[in-house]
Fold this sequence. Notes:
This protein is 39% helix and 28% strand.
Amino acid sequence: MKNIKVLGTGCANCKNTLKLIEEVARAKGVEVALEKVEDIQQIMSYKVIATPGIVVDGQVVHAGGVPARSEVEGWF
Length: 76
């Protein structure tokens, strides 16, 4: 199981990123624990300035804008 956090305050890009990750995980048959982090202090603890930020298994893998589908597929 992949532990994924989407860091952001709830903007449209954050919501689209969540949806994209769910779609890709479902298509690949991968079980994910998906968490939305909106607390600014938690987001800053990952040193993410541009949101959405994505953390996979404790590692920041993306920050700023909706990632490409191919990038998300690479995380799985």
